[in-house]
Structure of Alanine racemase:
Amino acid sequence: MDLDAIAFNYRYLQTLVAGASCAAVVKADAYGLGIERVAPVLERSGAKEFFVAHVDEGIRLRSVVSAKVRITVLHGPRPDAAAECVQYGLRPVLNSLDQIAVWRSQSVRAGKPLEAVLQVDSGMSRFGLSDGDLDVLHEDEMLMDGLKVSLAMSHLACADAPEHPANGAQRQQMLKMSARLPSAPLSLSASSGIFLGPDYHLDVVRPGAALYGIAPNQTGPNPLSAVVRLQAHVLQIREILPGEGVGYGMTYRPDRPRKIATVAVGYADGFSRHGSGQGCAWFEDISLPILGRVSMDSLIVDISDVPEGRLKADMMVDLIGPRRSVDDVAEAAGTIGYEVLTSLGHRFCREYVGNAETSQKGD
Ligand SMILES: *Cc1c(COP(=O)(O)O)cnc(C)c1O
């Protein structure tokens, strides 16, 4: 995990959105990278606002960032966790009339107005208030009593496809709906939305994936720095003859003699079985095609192209690295970089390089 790359990515995005404020999304243990190490780096790089999905994640985050950092809980206050939101200074996103009611009674209990984010559903049908909900709020102003709305947000469904007409439509709908809410700063874009251009930046952007090096779309080279490198040990090397079977189901049989290596990473480590027979590992600048099925704890690669004696048992090969990005691995497994990162297991050790201290100098 390259902490300097995370700091670089944060500052790059903040520069890109100029006048808007760049928050940082660290849900799911900072996309599997480790929130305890990642969040302080983001704070030192200038992030003042963080988003998590669950209240528990917010509580965990609270203990590793300074008290002035604002933490927003995307899933909102569950009735049994609303008191903890107050206790730990977590700002919930209110996604429904029910959640508004929960937070409002919490403010009565707290004896003071409580800050909240209101989410509107601008077209994704996942979270947020509908037009009908806004009608209800208009009819009874009491429903919002005790709420201090400090942000109105929505989320784009198709932002990774810049030409998709839903982007513009959702933006229009978001602006229309937020005009019916108490006046507050606006937030629409996550990582991909930032790259749709300034019209989509509004007041606050909420990148997650881009901070961790995932490409925001497929329209050009990825401008972000790679953060994750995944290496695993070679356990065993052998030579096989034409027709010999490799791995479960013997789905690979070479048509000429091959030299192969068994590598200590498998689907239990988050290296998907859907990547069986797809793509390659790398040893320095030599590609090592993945042969046959990925096992739970190991996979097999073809090392025939490695000059004799260079690669030995106990040496490491790259599964994700300078030659194969998180997005490449995802594509080979028919998924997205988000799922690759958040699936990375807890059996191998996470090593953090760089200290991302340089960003403090200018502060
Ligand atoms: C996860 C999430 C984000 C961050 O999305 P990325 O695509 O990772 O940048 C932002 N906003 C909401 C509501 C989210 O759920």
Q: What stands out?
A: Residues 120 and 128 are 4 Å apart (CA to CA). Confidence is low (pLDDT under 50) at residues 358-363.
